[in-house]
Amino acid sequence: MPQLSREQVENALRELIDPHLNQDPVSAGCIRTLTIDKGQVDVQLQLGYAADQFKQGWAQMLQMKLEQLDGVTAARVQVDWEVAAQAGMAGAETLSQVKNVIAVASGKGGVGKSTTAANLALALAREGAKVGVLDADIYGPSQGIMFGIKPGTRPGVEDEKYFVPLESMGVKVMSMAFLTNDDTPMVWRGPMAAGALQQMLTQTAWGELDYLVVDMPPGTGDIQLTLSQKAAVAGALIVTTPQDIALLDAKKGIEMFRKVNIPVLGVVENMAMHVCSNCGHIEHVFGEGGGERLADLYEVDLLASMPLSMAIRMQCDGGQPTTMADPESQIAMIYQQLARTVGARLSVAAHAGAAMPQIEIG
User: Fold this and answer.
1) Does domain 93-351 match CATH 3.40.50.300?
2) Domain with CATH 3.30.300.130 in the chain
3) Which segments within the chain are labelled E, that is strand?
4) Which 3 state secondary structure label does DSSP give 198?
């Protein structure tokens, strides 16, 4: 039997690509241990993103690949994960245990941004991560409804100076809706709304979180700038629909994040097509290919393309977003893939170790 070398094992592993990192496990630096004992190969990998729904299948694929290698009598592959903390500017004490802050943003309202934020957070939690959601849409908070939190529920208080976020479906949630009456509009000028965001962000006892998903208000105003200044935002997700007016506003959102040195992780296109529930005919109600064109223009990836679906709307309105209401559905699987890909993008940035600059806006 030929002598088996580490190089041969690594070359075999290089032939499989992690779909979330777009790299093989060797080039991505995922190998923690690799031992060869005669024909027995043992490999331990560590991913930098939450991957409970993926790691077992990935381990089996890698194991099968190694078992095809000449000289291998048996192979064992173990895949673990640990979310790395993003390097960045020092934040508030309450954010010191938050590893990654993800902004989910859109240029205009009505494109499904809050739905995306809720499903992203729940999908990350299903992957085993510790997740929080900050509803930063001060004027139109909706995360309380989506997470099934009863109207009138108030957060607790810790040490008379910190809010204790509410918990639902394994996710910590904080929203202006928990601090006001549902029938009371927020008739505030921009600086007042920005101040409210700063309070919720820095005076909430988040505890240990792998990811804090921030549901941003639409547009490019005071609240967006406040978040940029007060938190080390690891990356932003831009949500749009295919129609031209939504794409125009989404471009402004991408440009804003670039100006404040926040990396854009990618684009999510909602309402990409409608599939008739009776005949299966597909119609592109809001246009076709807009999200892909936007992603190409700014050299980022189109991370997900979601259909115009009554189920998505009904499940969110009912306090059970698709990721939890129907976790084995095709739509839920797209959200899971999105969550892992977003986590993987952040892990690459974290391992690069580039600290984000302090932002000053005059």
Assistant:
1) yes
2) 6-81
3) 31-37, 40-47, 74-81, 101-105, 131-135, 156-158, 162-164, 166-168, 171-175, 211-215, 233-240, 264-269, 274-275, 282-283, 302-305
4) helix
Average pLDDT score over the chain: 83
64 pLDDT band, cuts 50/70/90, is very high
Beta bridge partners, 269, equal 240, 305
Q: Which amino acid is it at 131?
A: V
Both tokens of residue 101? 């802050």
182: pLDDT confidence band, cut at 50, 70 and 90?
A: low
Find, among 206, 201, 222, 203, the residue nearest to 139 by Cα: 222
Whose CA is closest to 337, among 178, 96, 124? 124
Residues with Cβ within 8 Å of 170's Cβ and at least 6 positions away in sequence, in order, are 122, 125, 131
Nearest to 114 by CA among 139, 94, 97: 139
Distance CA 8, CA 58 (A): 20
Written as one letter, the residue type at 88 is G
Q: Is 34 left (phi over 0), alpha (psi -120 to 50) or beta?
A: beta
Are 239 and 105 contacting, i.e. CB atoms less than 8 angstroms apart? Answer: yes
Nearest-5° Cα angle at 138, 133 to 140:
95
Fold of 6-81: GMP Synthetase; Chain A, domain 3 (3.30.300)
Count other C-beta atoms under 10 Å from residue 64's C-beta. 12
| Cα 178 to Cα 69, 134, 138, 170, 203, distances in angstroms | 58, 11, 11, 18, 14
- The CA distance from 98 to 131, in Å, is 9
Residue 181: the pLDDT is 66
Place of tokens 């331990």: 44
Q: Which residue has the higher pLDDT, 360 or 83?
A: 83
In whole angstroms, give the CA distance from residue 282 to residue 274.
6
Amino acid 356: pLDDT: 41
- In the numeric block, the tokens 């209401």 are attached to 325
Sorting pLDDT into bands at 50, 70 and 90, what band is 90? very low
What one-character DSSP code corresponds to residue 51? -
Give buried/exposed letters for 263-279 (b at 16+ CB in 10 A, else e): bbbbbbbbbbbbeeeee
Q: Residue 176: helix, strand or coil by DSSP?
A: helix
